[in-house]
Amino acid sequence: MSEIPGHLLKKIEVYPNYECNRNCRFCFTSKDNNNYRSNPISFHSICEKIYIGYKGGCRMLTVLGGEPTVYDKLPNMLAFANKIGYIGTVLFSNGLKFADYSYAKKIASLKLKAVHLNIPSHEPDAFNYLTQSEHGYDALLQSIRNLKSLSIPMIAVCVITKQTYDKLAEYVDFYYKAGISFFIFHYAKLQGNLDPLNGNNAENIKSIVVPMSEAAKGLKKMLEHCLKANIFPPFIETMPPCVLDSYAYRITDFIFESKKFMSELRVIPGMRLRINKYDSRIKISECADCIWEEKCYGIEKAYINLFGKNEFKAVKELPQPYYNEIPEEKRTPLFISLPKLVEKTYIDMHGGED
After folding, report:
1. How far apart are CA 276 and CA 264, in angstroms?
2. What are the backbone angles phi and psi of residue 170, rounded to the nearest 5°?
3. Residues 6+ apart with CB under 8 A from 201
4. Dihedral over alpha carbons 41, 47, 49, 54 (to 10 degrees)
5. Are 65 and 71 spatial neighbours (Cβ–Cβ below 8 Å)?
6. Left if phi > 0, otherwise alpha if psi is -120 to 50, otherwise beta: which for 88?
7. CA dihedral (275, 283, 236, 208) positive or negative
8. Each residue's pLDDT tens digit in the chain (354 positions)?
9. Separation CA 48–CA 40 (nearest Å)
10. On the CB side of 14, how many CA atoms lie within 13 Å of its CA?
């Protein structure tokens, strides 16, 4: 595989606003918290920061929110990034606006490389409950059809909740058949709509959040299913390795630990340009004796306050990677199904295994 220039691994993340056309119960930016909205970034300032990022070596633009598609100058932003030399954009979206084919086509034409779709469930009732939307499920399915017809790669991002943690294998099967071949499972953050300091009591939070040890059971079952079904095993975010055993190698934190992957810039409303940080997690006493201590970014303090720390034990021996059990003739087709950049990242992480 040909070497990918290091500068292509640098990106700038832009949050043009925190407005959204859904109100997900698990959203990390609560609609009741207006601090994020009190000082929006001007379009001129966004372009200035994008230009600074380009001069600093960034070549990929990632746009998040809130919901970036409700930002009326999104097409202008992408056009500006293209003009100064960015090679493409990755968008994080709930997908509602892509149900309009003309809008999807317009954004796709602006060097859109991929869309991360926030998809909390494959079941209509759970989807609508978690997103607090009446017609969001049907719109999401239409968006997937539109993006697929435009040949835009889609990544399904699923926030693991009490409503979904034991149905993750079915989730993957459903959306894989719909045209999505890459998945990321994200443990719910105790922030925003799930922040204990934002008027949420433990009972309200526990109606959405499942303990990590239970979520890990659903994840392992799903990952084992993916290997049997010849689906590339999804990545996992915001979970510590001690609860995942051999599947700890799917944690994205391990991929982005090196400086070249941690060097993205973030542009956030009300804040200056800053380097990405993991500043909401802490280490507990058990972490000191764990072999993953240097790689692991810890656990949210709010989680420990809610569920305690008995789930987490120091790992004394390095677990055998799950991929050691994959037959060689099956291993290669699984790996080459990934986009080139992610494939290289994965191979580098595992010491050249392919």
Report:
1. 6
2. -65, -35
3. none
4. 160
5. yes
6. left
7. negative
8. 333 344 444 788 999 988 888 989 999 876 555 555 556 789 999 999 999 999 988 888 999 988 999 999 999 999 999 999 998 899 999 999 999 999 999 999 999 988 999 999 999 999 999 999 888 999 999 999 999 999 998 999 999 999 999 999 999 999 999 999 889 999 998 988 898 877 778 888 999 999 999 999 999 999 999 888 888 888 898 899 999 998 988 887 665 444 344 345 677 766 555 555 566 788 999 999 999 988 888 999 889 999 999 999 999 998 887 777 777 776 665 554 444 444 454 344 333 333
9. 15
10. 31
Cα–Cα distances in Å, from 335 out to 320, 332, 353? Answer: 18, 5, 10
Domains of the chain: 9-349 (3.20.20.70)
269 and 41 in contact (C-beta within 8 Å)? Answer: yes
State both tokens at 327: 């037959």
Q: For 310, phi and psi rounded to 5 degrees?
A: -65, -20
Query: How far is it, in rounded angstroms, from Cα 352 to Cα 354?
Result: 6
Cα Rg of the chain, angstroms: 20
Q: How many residues does the chain have?
A: 354
d(CA 37, CA 90): 23
